[in-house]
Each structure stands twice: as structure tokens, then as C-alpha cells.
């Protein structure tokens, strides 16, 4: 049985709490939040202890792992603190705001020997998983062009950090990162990025279209937006034109990605000479799958092969280069 602490009792913490609760090999022992009423409410709902500072929690507990659900600009500080206490970490995406902060975290992780995984949940998401399996088994062939999109209404619920250019950086850092990560997973190392984007009233680029080239010659375009008007469902799209197949996936939820009560999702596969295949991806909770995988890494004492550290760094390099490209309107070569 692994004892788990969640740090940050905001929106995404509930998905992680539900994943822990559904797993017979894990126990949610505490929540930490500087907002005492949020911590208390969470502790009552999920039947665990609560603390109002991470430092206080470490004075009382030695959990097997911490799940970092803090605003993005705080990830570096608290991942390093966990590493110093030799506590394994599942850290929400995006791993951090800058390449330097990400490198600092990864250095601390390496020195401490803890198991560290970034919660890139799309790698566990029904539909995306099947497409990755098709690519790996050679059923897609070479990709001519991939298009990955993620659009929603503004996701602000008192979380002022999200669209602060230094603390959350809006749709590019928060939404685009999912697709840039998935495209890195699917197509390999990124060579160049170019971003066309407009800032909105928050000062962040909240609607971005990025073109990516990969070192193996494959190409992709990704879109991320917080600019949709009220009522627009959280929508993810993935379309791939490849030498052996064309695939098209869509997922339309409610207000946010976790609002899955009335989802509309479908995967279509088109191949020469046969009828198109229409698949309803098997619906399971991807946060639960992601947690099960993290737990298996703890049990086997091995770093996550599905979400490797070097790819986490590649993705933050690409996302930061996309923000820079939006600013200077130039193609950026990833170093
Ligand atoms: N994987 C996904 O689908 C997904 C979805 C949403 C958010 N996220 C990511 O999860 C992270 C958190 O996002 P959120 O929407 O839950 O944020 P949020 O603003 O809803 O919650 C953050 C919580 O952290 C608390 N907090 C702030 N500073 C703290 C500190 N020093 N110590 C303890 N608690 C502190 C706040 O009081 C707040 O309750 C972000 O990195 C975000 O990008 C991922």
C-alpha cells in the first residue's frame, strides 16, 4: 500500500483524488493547501488529513509519493522540496514555466533518485492511446501531416495565476502543452516551431496556431485556445494524414476537460480498399490509468518509460520556443 499526499486542492486535485480512491494499492493520506478552507473541504470530502503548508506536512508525514497540483510557476520549488525529502513525485503538466526551471527540477530528481513523472494525461487518454499504438505497430506509415487541436472557453475560476504571463502564460503553456507533448510522443524530436497567435485582454497568447517540423521530416500543426465563447464544449481534435491511413479523432466534453458527463467522442480510420472503420474509444478514466501507471513505476522502482524525463524537457523547450515565436514572429530552431 502506497501512501499518497496531494499538494494543491484546486480544480485538478479532484481527478487525482478519485484516481487514488479507486486504487486498492494506494491510500490518500493528506491534502496540503495554503487556503485552509479549501484544504479542510477537500479533507472532509476525500477523508484524509490536511495541512496548510508543505513544510508542516513533511514534519508529520513521510508519504511514498506526492502529487503536485499547484499553479505551474510553483512546480520547481515543491518538486525540489519533495526530492530533498526523498518523496517520489507525480507532477501536473506543464512541468514548469521555463527551460531553466525544468532543468533544475530534473537535476534535483536525478541527484535524489526519486521516481518522477509528469502528468501528461493525454498519453493515457482513450483515442490518443489507440492512435499511438497504430503508429508504433506500423499501421499508420509515415505521417505527411498531423493536426492537433484543443479549444475551450476561458478556464478561469479564481485562479488568477493561469493567465498571468509569468505564472501560467495562458493557452500556450497550459493547453498547447498537451498537444505538443503528444506530437513529440508520436512524431519524435522537434526540429523547428513557428507560432501565429494573438494576445487577448489577459496579456497572454490565448489563441495559438503552431507549425512544427520534426527531425525525421514529419510535420504537424497544433491549435490551442481559451477564446471560445460561452457554451462551446471543451474540444480536442486529432487528424493524421499518413502513407497507410488517415485517422480522425474528436472528443467534445463539457466546460472543462474533466467534465465527461455528455462526451461525444469517435475515432475514424480510413484505409485504401476497405470500408472506413468507426470506433467509439473504450471510455475509462485516463487520470486513473495515469495513476495506475505511476504506481507501477513506484512498485518496480523505475522511471516512467511512457513519459520519459528527456521528453519532458524537449516539450518545455518547444512550448517556450512557441511563446517566443509568437512574440518575434520568427521560426525558432529547437536546440
Ligand atoms: N491534466 C489536466 O487535465 C489539467 C487540468 C487543469 C490543470 N492542470 C494543471 O494542474 C496544476 C494546477 O491547476 P488547477 O487548475 O488545479 O489550479 P487551481 O488554481 O485550481 O488550484 C491550485 C491550488 O494550489 C493552492 N496553492 C497555491 N500555492 C500553494 C502553496 N504554496 N502551497 C499549497 N497550496 C498552494 C491554491 O490555494 C489552490 O487551491 C497546473 O499546473 C495546471 O496546469 C492540469
Please tell me about this protein's structure:
The protein has 335 residues and is an alpha/beta fold. It folds into 2 domains: 2-120, NAD(P)-binding Rossmann-like Domain (Rossmann fold); 122-288 and 316-333, Dihydrodipicolinate Reductase, domain 2 (2-Layer Sandwich), CATH 3.30.360.10. Helix content is 34%, strand content 27%. A hairpin with a 4-residue loop joins strand 9 (205-214) and strand 10 (219-225). The radius of gyration is 20 Å and the shape is globular. The model has no long low-confidence stretch (mean pLDDT 95). Residues 7-13, 32-35, 38, 54, 69-72, 74, 92-93, 119, 121, 159, 174, 257 line the site of nicotinamide-adenine-dinucleotide.
Brief description of this entry?
With 335 residues, the protein is an alpha/beta fold.
Instruction: Strand order, main sheet: write it out.
Output: 14-13-12-11-7-10-9-8-15
Shape type: globular
Query: What is the mean pLDDT?
Result: 95
CATH domain class of the largest domain? Alpha Beta
Note the total helix count: 9
CATH fold field value of the largest domain? Dihydrodipicolinate Reductase, domain 2
Sequence stretches where pLDDT stays below 50 over 5 or more residues: none
The amount of beta strand, in percent, is 25-35%
How much helical structure, as a percent, in the residues? 25-40%
SSE sequence, one letter per element:
EHEHEHEHEHEHEHEEEEEEEHHE
- Could you tell me the radius of gyration in angstroms? 20 Å
State the separation between the terminal residues, measured CA to CA: 42 Å
Compute the number of strand runs: 15
- CATH H-level superfamily of the largest domain: Dihydrodipicolinate Reductase, domain 2
CATH architecture of the largest domain: 2-Layer Sandwich
Bound molecules: nicotinamide-adenine-dinucleotide
Total number of domains: 2
Structural class: alpha/beta
Biggest pleated sheet: 9 strands, mixed
Amino acid at each position: 500500500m502506497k501512501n499518497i499526499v496531494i499538494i494543491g486542492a484546486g480544480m485538478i486535485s479532484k481527478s487525482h483524488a478519485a484516481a487514488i480512491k479507486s486504487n486498492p494499492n494506494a491510500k490518500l493520506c493528506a491534502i496540503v493547501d495554503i487556503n485552509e478552507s479549501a484544504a479542510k473541504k477537500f479533507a472532509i470530502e476525500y477523508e484524509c488529513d490536511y495541512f496548510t503548508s508543505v513544510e508542516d506536512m513533511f514534519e508529520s508525514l513521510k508519504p511514498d509519493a506526492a502529487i503536485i497540483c499547484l499553479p505551474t510557476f510553483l512546480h520547481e520549488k515543491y518538486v525540489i522540496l519533495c526530492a530533498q525529502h526523498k518523496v517520489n513525485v507525480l507532477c501536473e503538466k506543464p512541468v514548469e514555466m521555463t527551460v531553466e526551471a525544468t532543468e533544475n527540477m530534473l537535476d534535483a530528481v536525478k541527484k535524489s533518485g526519486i521516481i518522477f513523472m509528469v502528468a501528461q494525461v493525454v498519453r493515457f487518454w482513450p483515442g490518443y492511446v489507440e492512435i499511438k499504438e497504430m503508429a508504433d505497430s506500423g499501421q499508420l506509415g509515415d505521417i505527411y501531416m498531423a493536426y492537433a487541436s484543443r479549444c475551450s472557453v476561458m478556464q478561469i475560476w479564481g485562479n488568477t495565476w493561469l493567465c498571468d504571463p509569468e505564472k501560467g502564460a495562458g493557452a500556450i503553456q497550459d493547453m498547447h502543452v498537451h498537444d505538443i507533448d503528444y506530437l513529440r510522443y508520436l512524431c519524435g524530436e522537434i526540429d523547428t516551431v513557428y507560432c501565429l497567435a494573438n494576445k487577448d485582454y489577459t496579456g497572454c497568447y490565448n489563441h495559438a496556431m503552431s507549425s512544427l517540423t520534426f527531425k525525421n521530416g514529419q510535420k504537424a500543426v497544433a491549435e490551442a485556445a481559451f477564446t471560445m465563447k460561452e457554451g462551446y464544449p471543451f474540444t480536442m481534435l486529432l487528424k493524421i494524414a499518413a502513407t497507410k491511413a488517415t485517422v480522425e479523432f474528436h472528443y467534445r466534453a463539457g466546460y472543462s476537460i474533466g467534465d465527461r458527463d455528455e462526451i461525444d467522442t469517435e475515432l475514424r480510420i480510413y484505409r485504401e480498399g476497405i470500408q472506413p472503420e468507426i470506433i467509439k474509444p473504450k471510455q475509462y478514466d485516463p487520470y486513473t490509468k495515469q495513476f495506475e501507471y505511476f504506481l507501477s513505476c513506484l512498485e518496480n522502482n523505475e522511471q516512467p518509460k511512457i513519459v520519459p524525463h528527456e521528453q519532458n524537457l524537449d516539450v518545455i523547450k518547444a512550448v517556450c520556443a512557441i511563446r517566443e515565436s509568437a512574440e518575434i514572429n520568427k521560426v525558432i530552431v529547437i536546440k
